Amino acid sequence: MELVTRNHRLGFPRRPLIMGIVNLVADSFSGDGIVEIERAVAHARELVAQGADCIDIGAESARTNRAPISEQEEADQLCAFIEAWQEPVPLSINTWRPGVARAALETGGDLLNDIGALPTDENARICARTGAALLIMHSVGEPKVPHTHVGYRDVMEELEAFFEAKLAMAEAAGVPRNAIVLDPGIDFAKQRADNLRIYRELRRLERFDRPILLPVSRKTVIGDVLGLKDPTQRDAGTVACIVHGMLQGAHIFRVHNVRAAAQTVRMIDAVEKAGAALA
User: Fold this and answer.
1) Which CATH number fits the domain 2-278, given the four candidates 3.20.20.20, 3.40.50.970, 3.40.50.300, 1.10.540.10?
2) Which of 64, 190, 272, 277 minimizes the number of CB atoms within 10 Å of its CB?
3) Can you say how many angstroms the Cα of residue 10 is from the centroid of all Cα atoms in its chain?
4) What is the pLDDT of residues 147-175, one digit of tens each?
5) Which residues pair with 94 in a beta bridge?
6) Neighbouring residues of 99: CB distance < 8 A, sequence distance ≥ 6
């Protein structure tokens, strides 16, 4: 399996990739937002030094208790970072608004991380035109609106039907299948039991033969299970989810604590390779 972005070509199987998070906002839910571009770029470089294989930048919080900023403000922040980023490390652009995606990807970037669940093919067409790869995340309804009422008869059947339809939409819009990543959308329009089942049965998504990004970092479901309201206290739970995710075939982990995640992946990878050598 291969993932082709605008500037990079990655082959799988290989050890999972670590995607480091850079929040260009003042009130990130995990308290790590940075609005000054020079500081944000320096922080991203530090994440790469800690083991990040790619960087995910977002300038609009997905928090539902915060009003959205204007598209112009979001685009200005993203474009300023992209212009300042001169590293040979893949850059993921985290936005769901097509106007912002267009402005950002015309400036640069390798991957559009669309957490809007691709309601139309507009973002896919932008990716096709710019050559950027596309991440499709499962959710229900509009971003920044609480969806705690959503329930599923079978969440895994829902994910499989959703990705079947969205892959067809993206490919029809001109995005090559080898330029698509899938994200099951942990915590987005899902309840605790849904999230835990996705972790447990992630391998069911292997049928699509696309890399799976597992956004495990400091998630609400970890706080619920461990009784931790403060997201910054959830790193041990995050590591546990990374270990389980690796055993279930995840290819990319999006995380805040890059050093801990990178060391976890390297250790599990070494154990797996040693076991294969003895087989």
Assistant:
1) 3.20.20.20
2) 277
3) 16
4) 566 789 999 999 999 999 999 999 999 99
5) 58, 113
6) 71, 75
- Please report which confidence band the pLDDT of residue 264 belongs to, taking 50, 70 and 90 as the band edges: very high
Rounded Cα distance between 129 and 112, Å, is 12
User: Tell me, what amino acid is at 173?
Assistant: A
AA identity, residue 33: G
Q: What residues contact residue 27 under an 8 Å CB cut-off, 6+ apart?
A: 33, 61, 63, 66
| pTM for this predicted structure | 0.93
pLDDT tier at 27, thresholds 50, 70, 90? low
Task: Please state, in angstroms and rounded to a whole number, the distance separating the CA atoms of residues 109 and 278.
Answer: 41
> What is each CA distance from 5 to 173, 179, 235, in whole angstroms?
16, 6, 29
- Tokens matching residue 19: 């995607």
Neighbours of 37 (CB within 10 A): 18
